[in-house]
Amino acid sequence: MLFEPFKYLRIYPRVVIDASLPETVFLSDLYPRSNMRLQVNGMTCTSCVERVIDALNSIEGATEVTVNLEQGFASFSGISENIATQTIEKLGYSVGSESTPILQNEFNWSDGATWKQSAHNTKWCLVGCSIGDFGTIAAFQFIPYLDSLGWSTMSIMMLAMFNGIMTSIALETIILTAQMALKEAFKVAIGMSLISMISMEAAMNIVDFVLTGGAKLTWWVILPMLIAGFLTPWPYNYWRLKKYGISCH
Question: I want to staple 118 with a disulfide (CB 3.0 to 4.6 A). Which of 35, 113, 158, 238 is the partner?
């Protein structure tokens, strides 16, 4: 019998490797579960929520994407936990599953990204507080009827601080209604750090009193008041954001 070298040769279809795929492919990537839920650490405002939603929706196959700012969770279907985690982490947030809580990093004061984010949060606190605070002082200064009531400087400043906190909460509620129901938005807004807002209000009014001798608004006192109102709670907002992933605004 003649030697037949190709008698047992088997021809198999060619396999093409997609270079764009990750080196490690998990079985869960090929068969994603529905109704997945991840804990997302670092979301502080509605802009954060929108970034996470847009990023997850951009993944092919993603459906039923929802993000809860108050509880810090992202829910979705149609994509794997691994792919969703990688996508969210690219945005700068930390991720963990419900059964695996996120481990907090050792606290430090040298995180530039956190300083930047906390400055952004503090800025919005300042905008909200300034509306009520400056408005109250201006009203007692320029409306004759209110001026004739004879309120003391301390009384006017206390009312200005209260109104500043209220307008800050109102502003945050309005912003959050774009992402959630009014009742839930108000609940999140009212849960913001009062320590941050009170320290901000106190700093602005103390500067006003020291520079003008009372509860008065002049063109040159507004900037020092805003600077003091921003700088005073900023380190606290950094600490709260860095340690717990939550902010005042």
Answer: 238
Positive or negative CA dihedral for 103, 108, 109, 111? negative
Say how many CA atoms lie within 13 Å of 114 toward its Cβ: 23
- According to DSSP, residue 41 is labeled E
> Can you list the domains of the chain with their CATH numbers?
27-97 (3.30.70.100), 112-244 (no CATH)
Q: Give the rounded percent of residues in the chain with a pLDDT score beyond 70.
A: 77
Burial of 75 per CB tally in 10 Å (0-12, 13-18, 19+): middle
What are the CA-CA distances from residue 177 to residues 2, 189, 235, 249 (Å)?
Answer: 84, 10, 28, 14
**Model confidence pLDDT, tens digit, residues 103-157:** 445 678 988 888 988 898 899 889 999 999 999 999 999 999 998 999 999 999 9
Taking the CA of residue 51 as centre, how many other CA atoms within 13 Å lie in the half-sphere pointing to its CB?
A: 15
H or E element that contains 235: helix 234-244
